[in-house]
Every structure is written in C-alpha cells, then in structure tokens.
Design brief:
The structure is a homodimer. By secondary structure, the first copy, chain A, is of the alpha+beta class. Helix content of chain A is 48%, strand content 15%. In chain A, α10 packs antiparallel against α11 (306-334). At the A-B interface, α9, α10, α11 and α17 of A face α9, α10, α11 and α17 of B.
C-alpha cells in the first residue's frame, strides 16, 4: 500500500474528504465552530470572518509542530532539540510513576538542570502525524454485504493488514491507525512518527499547575500554570527536529484570531436521538453515580497518610475532572432544546429518504437499526463496562493479568485474526505499558479494587453469575485483599517472565489475578463479541447509510466528529459570560496573589510565595478564546496567524461541557496558559535559563 | 373547633372527600392500585375483585391498631399492654442512640427480659390517628385571592390556629396536623393520640434484620427478619390499649387478599409533566450523585475501626437505601413512556379547559404558572437544599445550633406568625429532639461535616457568597475541624442551658456552630421565604386550580398522593417477575441457610447459627404481595380479611421503585416478614416466651 508523503497526501485525501465533508446534512457550522481535519479546512469561512486563509506552509508547520501524547493529550514541539510543551495534568501518570515516598514529583515539581538529569517517563509515548491516506474504497470493498460479527471481522482484518504494511521496515519508529470519520463514512490511514523515549524536563508543583483545584476546574477566570516540558529522544540523544513551533511570549490580544492544533478525543455531534437518549440514561444512572461514589472513596482515602494519601490525591484529580465532564454532558442531554433540535434534523432527513423509493431501497431504515442496537446496548453496556472494560477490576494489577493471559492466546494467531489491541501494530505500545516498572501501593490497590468489586455486585446483584464467578463466597473486601496480597503482578520482572513464557508459563501460574483473568476470559470474550456485533457493528453500519442519505440530500460542509486525530480549531481571544457576569479574557499575577488564601487548593507553593513579589503583577497568566475544543485538546498549542505559540490550551469553561453534542460560540470557551507566563515562570520562579534560551534562541 | 370522634368523623370527612375523590381525572385506578384514606375506601372495586367490603368494624380496628413512628415509619399496636411491632430498620436511630463502644445494640440486638429492662428511645414518638375533620372551606376562605407569600402566610396562620385549638387541654398527649390532599385540593385536620415515652423491647441483630444488606435491598426473594418490638408507656407504665391487632402466625396463602395499613410518606402521581422533568433533572444531576459520593465516603470510613466505623456503618445503610430509591425514581422518570402518558392526560385536560371560556376564567392557566415556578425551582432548589434544608451542614450539631438560634427568635412571637416548625403544636416534638442526650463521635462528625461543606463548595463554586460566608478562607476540612472541635453542641446540658436562656444566652454564645447559624440566619430565612413564595405557594395554588378543572370534567375516583397519613392498600400474596424469571411469593428458613455464605452481608449472627438446625426449615420467612406501598409504609402490618396481622411490610421490590409516579401491578410488590417467622424467632432464637405469650395470649 502506498503511503504518500506530505504534501501529496493532502491532495489525495482532500479529494475524498471533499466529497464526504459535503454529505452530513444539518445546520451549517457556526462561525468558529468545528474541529477540522488539516486536509479539509473551512477556508472560505475563515477568509470571510477573519480575512485569513491558511496556506500550505502554515498547515505544514502545524502538522510538524503538533504532538500527540499517549493517554489522550496533545502537545507541541517547541525546540529544535525535541522539547515538547504540554500540560502538567497530561503527565500526572508519569509524575506519579517517577515519584516515591521520598520524592513526590507530582506535589513538588521537577526541573532538570542538565540533559543528564532528564528522567524517562516509563510508558509515555509521543507521536507526530506524517501522512493521511484515504482507504474508504478498500474498507467498502472489504465489508460489502457483511453484517454484525462478519462486518466487524472484515474491518479488523483490513485494519491489521493496512497498519502492518504501513509500518513495514520502520516498526520501531512508526505508528499507523485506521481512522473512521463520520462514524465510518470515511476511512483514512494515519501514519505517525513514533517517539517512545520521552523524558521529563520540567514540571511545576501541582499546587500552581492546578491552582484552584476541583472548585475552579472548568471555570473562568483561572490562575493555573498547567504546563510542563518533555523531551523526545532517539538513539539515546535528544531528537533533532526539522521543524518546530516557536514561543511568542507577547501572547495574543483580545479579539485576535487564534488557532489550536491538537487531538480532540471524541464528540457525539452526529449521534441520532436514540443514541443520545441511551447515552443520557447511561450517564445519569451509571457513569455519574459511579464517579461520584469513587470521589467519595478517594476524598476519604486522601484524609489518610503516606503513600495511600499520595495515590488517592492523584486519583481524585482525575475522578473530579471526569465528574465535571460527565455532569456537563448530562446537563446538555437533559436540555429539551438539544434533543428537539436533533430530532427536527433527523425528521427532515427521514422525510427526504421516505419520499425517494430508490434511495429508501439503498439506505434502508438506519434509524430503526440504530434503535434496535440501543436495546442491545442498554442490555449489555453496564456489564461490558464492568467486565470487558475492566471497571469491576480497578487498577493496573488485573489489567496486567488480563493482558498476559490474552497475549499468550493471541500472539500465536495470524495478525488479521487477533483482537485489535494484540495486532502487530499495537503490540509494541501494549508491551511498553505492560512491562514498565512503576510503583504500586498495596493498600491503595486493595482499597480501589474492593470498591470496584463492590460496585460490580451493586450493579449486577449478588445472584448474577458474573458476581458469583468473580467473588465466590467472599465479600468484595475480602476478595480484594486475597487478590492484592497474593499477587506478583506489581513486579515488572514477574510480568516480563510471564510475557516471555507465553501460554505455558501462564497455564502454570497460580497468581490469583492470573487465575481470575483466565477463569473469566472465555465468557468475557463472548461478551465482547456480542457487544461488538449487536451494538457497535450495527451502529456503525447504519451510520454509513445515514451518511449516504445525507450526501444525496446535500447541504453545507460539516466537520467529522472528533476521533483523537489532529484537528484545527479557530476563533478569537474573547470574554465569556459566566454565572451571570461577563469575565474579561485575561487574568494576571495580581489576581493570582489576591486569590491565594493559603488553604489548599488556593495555596501557593513555596517557590511562588518567594517569587511573586519580584514578578510583574501585570504579567498575564491565563486567557479564554472561542475555540471549539474538547477533552484530548489538553496541551494543544494556542497559535497566532504566524503560527507562533501564544498560549497552551489546558481546559474549557463550564459552557464548553455541552460541546460533546453541539458548539455554542456564545458560551463555549477554551482556556489557555499565556505563553509569557510560561517563560516568566521558567526564568524567574524555576531559575531555568537554559530552557528559556532553548525556547527563545537569540535571533 | 369540633373534633368529632369515630365513626362520626368518617361520615363528615367522607362527605367532603367523596366530592374530591371524584375530581382528579386520569386513567382509572388499576385493580389493587391506590393508597386509600380510611374515610374514602374504594369499596366497589374491592367488592368487585375480591368479594370483600370493609365494614365499619374493620376500619375502626385498623385505625386503632395502626401506629405512626416519628422519622417516617409505620407500625401496629399488637398487645393490650402497648407492644408496637415495626421494622428493625425503622428504629436504627434509637438503636444507635442506645449504643456505645461497649454495647452495640444495632449490631448485637437487644431483648428485654422484663419490663424493667425496656430502654427508652431518647427522641422517638409514636402516634395513633384519632379523627379526621374536613377544613377545606376554612382554608379556602383564609387564602381566597391571595398569592405567593401572602397565600403561604394565610395558610400558616390557619394551620397554627387549627392545630392549637385541636390540642387545647391535652397538649402532652395530642398531635394535630393540617393535611393537604390533592396538593391542596382538600384540607383535613388529623388528630392523633401521642405517645412520647417509647421503649425498646426487642431488636434482632442487624445481620439477620438486614440479611443480604444493600446487595439484596429492594430485591425479591429475600430472607430478612426486619422486625422489632417497642412499647408505648403513659405515666411511667405500659399504656393500656382499648383495641389492638392480633398476630396470626399461620400467615396468609398465595392468592389470598391482604391489606397494609400504614403511612406512605409521599408520592408524586399528580405532578404535572413540567414538575416531573424538574424532578428528573434534580435527581440525575444533584441528588443521586450526592448520595453516591456520600456512599463512597462512608464505605471508606467504615473500613476504619471503633466508633467511627460504627457510625459510618449506620449512616451507610440509610444512604444505600436512598440510592436505590432515588435510582429507581430516576429510572422511571427517564422512561419516555411515563412522560408520554402523563403528557397525554395533561393535554386532554388542557383541551377540556380551553374549550370552556367560563372554566378558563376560573382556572386560568395553572400549567403556565407551574412551569414558571419550575424556573424558580431550578434556580433555587440546590441552594435551598444546601442551606435551608441543611445539606451543607451534615449532622446534628449544626441542626441543634440553628434550632436554638431560631427558637430564641420565634418563641416570643405570636403562634400564627412563627415558622411552622416553631408553632405551639410543633414545639414539644422539636424540644424532645433537641434536648435528648445522644452519643456523638467527634471524628465522625468532623468527617461528614467536611464532606458536606466540600459539597457546598463543589455545587456553588468557590466564589459564591454563601461559600465565602460559611468557609471564610478555610478549606472545608479545616473549617469542619474548627467547628466540631470548638463546639459544645454535642452536650445536651449545654443545649438545655441555651434553650432556657433564650435570645440573651444565644447572643452571648461564642460556640462556633451558634456563631455560624446566627451569621447566616437572615439570609437563610430570606432564601426560604423566596423558595416558599416563588415555588411552593405557586405550585400549590396552581394544583388547586388543576383539581378544580378535573372536577368539572368528571372521571373515575382517584386516591390522593401520599402525605405521610394513614392509608389502606389492598392486593394479594403473589409471585413477581424479577430479572426475567418469576419468583414464588414465599421464602423459608431452608433458603436462608442456603444463602448464608458467612461473609457479610450474607453472614448469620451467632444466635441464628446456633438455632437454625433446630428450626423447621419449611417455616416461611418473607413474602411478596401486590400492595401499592412506598417509603413510610415500612413497619405497616400486613392484614388478612379478619384484620389479623399475617406479616410485617419492610420493603418493596425493584419494580416498586417507580411507584412514586405510577402503579404497575405486574411488577410492583410489597415485601413482608411472615408473622410466623417473628413468633418462631422470639420463641426459639431469642428465648422470649413472655413476649410470645403477650402476642399470642391463650384464647
């Protein structure tokens, strides 16, 4: 398979995208709305509103300068020697892994005073998009006439083949993904340069990175230095980058056109009303209560001491963030206006199809198929989440055990027949994560496992066969203790041994997590198979036909739902209405000093208490801009027309939380760290002149 | 005012009720549906389906034999010397108050071997309904032409006058309530005999009372001995009862007609769709996540040791029960079919009114008024719940402080002008609760207060004036520590001193809880005033006009929404479909033995482990019946046609949780302890032959 290099790929993929971008009927994109693939930017809209049209040089620069972080974040390459700018909250996993009771890098921060002091993140990888190739026709051909499980199997086989061919000859430095846009309407192969040696260069203390904590999260105004620097290495030395983005410490002004270039993880703007209702009920009845309960557990665990407290605080941050995200989505889904507008658009398309017998014959009734899939989804999704997504088995220990058990079964099979995550293309990532030596606290592992096992029993009831298979006659707490105290899964060497030993070693292991993973694996695979064939495959196949109907009808261009792939958003630095008042788009160090009460999460770390009196109180710290972003955009560079980095996106406001389903420019804002604040902090708070010089080389 | 004695009262009140019972249009009550006031039973329906019509003797017996417990439960008088049968879970507060680190009566149970050993519950009171008097005309006259705050004030003034007159001359032994049926369509004065000296006689261990714990809660089949015996005293001696209900240990058979006679706390079957949607959103976004978070805190706190563990376990039980109730209600409200059927009924009534100009003139547009009130409710209810309902200040300590602060201000005022809960009619109850000496664990108080203060900040945001007023510059945890460690509110003698000292003593107190309650009281009263006048008064006044419209239209008889007052439900012992299979209506001791795994909550207490081999394995333990019940019915006697006690209602099944909004006989079941199991436990497990003899005197 051909993987043409930039810029050819844009021309090729763009031709296919141009067809598909025209085909999703619906209200035209609002000004500043949209997460646009780089090969299909809304040039006319941008020109009309801002008198700016991105040229090939601009697009090339963004593509070369944009980084994608494992774990679902974005970043930017900001020096010729491999510096990557991202958010502090995007590297908390790494900071935790590099911490111990003696050195709490999450709480206390870190500065490498030399290259030699830079610390390798055990399992973090960074990728950079190299090319996009349209493979829609191949996917169409492979899946033609297939349904359910067959449809899924054909897609999986094609994915395995395309990604293997894409990586051929450069497996260690290449990642390839099959990306389905428009819920399967368009298929593209994304090829990435892979950096798997990523090192920590600088992280501020969490108290300033997440100043205001959960109370301020998703609010504006804000005063956070949610920034960090990593460095990508190759061959043991800093990677030499052909092109990178340059920091512009002057930042941007109110009303100025700005962009973000990042990897929004997922949106649901093209869901049908039936899907939106299923999601609403799932969030209200399952996800939000589950997160809230976990928050309570972690709040209480964080009152303890020592390692348990450290782990609980780290977990709490993620849980509280998820609660705001899920709560915001739920609020949007409960709003009758949202559902009514989606229903109206749906009714119009349905009437269009019904009036055309030939189209009806080709399209069928995708709404009915999706509705049918919703019944299956409602029946299966809680169980699928608990067992196959592993929510019943919170923590890495079970996840490692399952990976070992499944890898031993999958690796001997032909690539195209394996579970997706065990394909040749996926194995290196999986192996890195499995074998990285990272610290665990047994008490904390036991605590969260007991909670999640209890949740399993709460949701399914004590008489459910799954519950009986997992718990036996033990209480969740006793079972968790038995598993955690008896396991060696926390030991990377033991995992290495079992990985290498394969099926034979696995069969002999009496590690309780291995025994558990082994004992439920057949049933868990059957459950996954049912969920994929009765829910996911049906939904995707119907979505393709919906897209076809919309294409026939015509209508304004529309961007595809976010898929964790590189997208450009555009908008302007602008104020936002919050809780009844208009908040100006900038905050500064004067405001930070005023908000610091001394009580967590409004307490400044010692470095900032010492430095603040010396700093310019007018130095801008955070800003808000009308960019259409969502989770996954964290760490995206905020760019000006020159493609200079004027900020670092780290959050959205409360009004952005409905962004999963629609964009409303009146209330939706991205929140960014001001570029000048980052430079000033490195220079005057963290005394890192070397980093400043690398970021801002003399011209 | 005249308070006629039974049976006259039935004739009088019945006449008014007969009018009103005809006036709520809607689908006719399903067979076995309904929580019927004793003065308006569905005689024709009962006769038609079961060939049984309750005579005056039957009704009189039920009324004399039914008990209402403070805290929202039911019970029955079951001996001539004042024994009251209720649920174990209805007296957990008393059991906790009578416990200490040395004697855990909740966990270990209690049996009084003599009258002298019976232990007084510090603040539990029991009432028995004596008469019902219709006062609709008086309420109509008092509130005629009034709106909002004026409407509310007029109602409050009438309530104070009527209840004061009702109690005149027998204040210590009388309770009177103004009861609004049909959301204000019918007003009645309920007069009760009050027993304020209530003593604990027998309680089994929690492990058998709540066998299966939260996992089994609201499920069927069940195996719980959720029963307890209290005794009402007067003048320091057991009360001598003119009439009581008799236990029938043979129980009832499958298909047999049975009744429950109890005090269902509240239903929302007559809410408009606008109100149902507000409630749905409130449950999904606020109540359920709040409860889930608290569950997490308590789960974790219960892993600790000592007193904190004991308090946390007790709290956990209530929280988990609420989660199932709220979750079940939310599930019903998310079901599109429920809202559609309610909307259809609403549209029909609306069309009926619109077609009649004269009726339109009288009724106005109550739907629009209610919709307007919903906007106010959505704006205010979270804040009102936190501040005025005290959810931000979890625990008794703040509640005591507020009661003291408000009582000092309210008591000097004329009765009719006071806040409802400080009226002459309410003061004795309030004083009993305030001044009872009950144990507190400071660590536990601090823990739950810190959690609820954190919740206050989470919901309102750190910049909210309420948050700033309550927390100052402290974190929730530090503020909770400051309050709990500095207060004397846990000391009943100090509360007594401040109660007697009144305004002068309060003004001098520097107790941090008193200072807090004082500092927010003006604003909290203003908030309450707004909520009552903009939300509650508008909703109630509109509901009266809705009832008027429905009356004009005519239609089948309908029972009023539950109001915590005495109601009769009828149905039959019957199987129920649960999770796809039909569960027979009885469980027995053989099943209990099979389900006992030894791991909590499926572990039997020592008494039962020892006794079970001696007991008849075929002895029935729990049963299910198609009775329309809801929270507040806990402890209701299950009665046969002879008015004998054949069981003790303690729960509903999962299908009963939608009962707040509608009744579905196919899935909705009440769950009861079999009368024979209670007798057998007293005789053969707890060796209490005296109690058995008192319950089953030789004929």
């Amino acid at each position: 398979m051909q993987t043409p290099r930039f810029p050819t790929r844009l021309a090729r993929a763009g031709a296919a995208a141009a067809v598909w971008l025209g085909l999703l009927a619906g209200p035209p994109a609002q000004a500043a709305e949209g997460m646009w693939p780089l090969d299909a930017l809304p040039r006319a809209q941008m020109q009309q509103r801002y008198g700016f049209e991105p040229g090939p040089g601009f697009v090339d620069k963004l593509m070369q300068g944009s980084a994608r972080l494992g774990g679902g974040c974005s970043g930017s390459f900001v020096s010729a020697e491999g510096l990557v700018l991202t958010n502090h909250h995007c590297i908390t996993r790494c900071l935790g892994q590099l911490s111990s009771a003696a050195a709490n890098r999450l709480q206390d921060g870190f500065v490498a005073r030399s290259r030699a002091q830079e610390l390798r993140c055990p399992d973090l990888e960074i990728t950079r998009l190299e090319s996009i190739t349209d493979v829609t026709a191949q996917l169409r051909a492979a899946t033609a006439g297939k349904q359910g499980a067959d449809f899924q199997a054909a897609e999986d086989a094609l994915r395995a083949r395309l990604t293997r061919e894409c990586r051929a000859g450069a497996e260690d430095t290449t990642r390839c993904d099959l990306v389905l846009l428009y819920r399967g309407g368009l298929a593209q192969l994304y090829k990435y340069r892979l950096f798997s040696d990523v090192r920590l260069v600088w992280a501020p203390e969490e108290a300033i990175a997440a100043f205001g904590g959960d109370p301020d999260n998703f609010n504006f105004p804000r005063w956070c230095l949610d920034a960090a620097l990593l460095r990508v290495y190759e061959g043991g030395a800093p990677a030499v980058l052909r092109q990178h983005l340059r920091l512009q410490p002057a930042g941007a002004q109110a009303g100025e056109l700005v962009f973000s270039s990042g990897h929004p993880g997922g949106t649901d703007r093209q869901m049908t009303t039936a899907q939106l209702q299923t999601l609403r009920d799932e969030l209200a009845q399952n996800r939000l209560p589950q997160l809230a309960e976990l928050r309570g557990v972690m709040l209480q665990a964080a009152r303890g001491e020592g390692e348990q407290r450290r782990f609980a605080l780290a977990a709490l941050q993620g849980v509280e963030n998820s609660i705001k995200v899920v709560g915001g989505q739920l609020q949007a889904l409960l709003d009758p206006a949202l559902l009514a507008s989606k229903r109206q658009a749906e009714d119009e398309l349905r009437a269009f199809v019904a009036a055309r017998p030939e189209l009806t014959r080709r399209v069928g009734d995708p709404w009915a198929d999706i509705a049918r899939a919703q019944a299956a989804r409602r029946e299966l999704q809680a169980l699928h989440g608990l067992i196959e997504d592993g929510r019943a088995f919170s923590g890495d220990l079970f996840s490692h055990a399952r990976t070992l058990v499944r890898a031993a079964a999958e690796r001997p099979r032909p690539d195209a027949e394996r579970l997706r995550e065990y394909s040749d293309a996926s194995l290196p990532r999986l192996q890195r994560r499995l074998l990285a030596a990272v610290p665990h606290d047994p008490a904390f592992e036991e605590l969260r496992l007991a909670w999640s096992l209890n949740r399993l029993r709460s949701v399914l009831g004590p008489d459910d066969p799954w519950v009986q298979r997992v718990l036996g006659r033990l209480s969740p707490q006793d079972r968790a203790r038995q598993l955690v105290q008896g396991t060696r899964m926390a030991d990377a060497a033991e995992r290495q041994r079992l990985w290498q030993g394969g099926a034979a070693a696995l069969a002999q292991s009496d590690d309780p997590f291995i025994v558990l993973a082994r004992s439920i694996d057949d049933a868990a695979r059957a459950l996954r198979q049912r969920f994929e064939s009765e829910v996911l495959a049906v939904e995707r196949q119907a979505a393709q036909r919906l897209a076809l109907a919309a294409f026939e009808r015509g209508g304004p261009a529309l961007y595809p739902d976010a898929t964790g792939t590189l997208r450009l958003s555009y908008g302007e630095v602008s104020a936002v209405p919050e809780r009844g008042r208009v908040v100006p788009p900038f905050t500064d160090l004067r405001g930070l000093a005023a908000r610091a009460t001394g009580a967590s999460p409004f307490a400044l770390p010692g470095t900032w208490q010492a430095a603040l009196p010396r700093l310019d109180p007018a130095q801008r710290l955070n800003l808000s801009a009308s960019l259409d972003i969502i989770g996954g955009n964290s760490g995206s560079p905020l760019l000006n027309r020159q493609g200079e980095v004027v900020g670092l996106v780290f959050d959205g406001n409360l009004g952005s939380l409905g962004g999963a389903f629609s964009y409303d420019e009146r209330v939706n804002r991205a929140i960014a760290v001001h570029s000048g604040a980052i430079v000033e902090a490195l220079r005057s708070v963290y005394a890192a002149p070397g980093l400043v010089a690398e970021l801002l080389p003399a011209p």
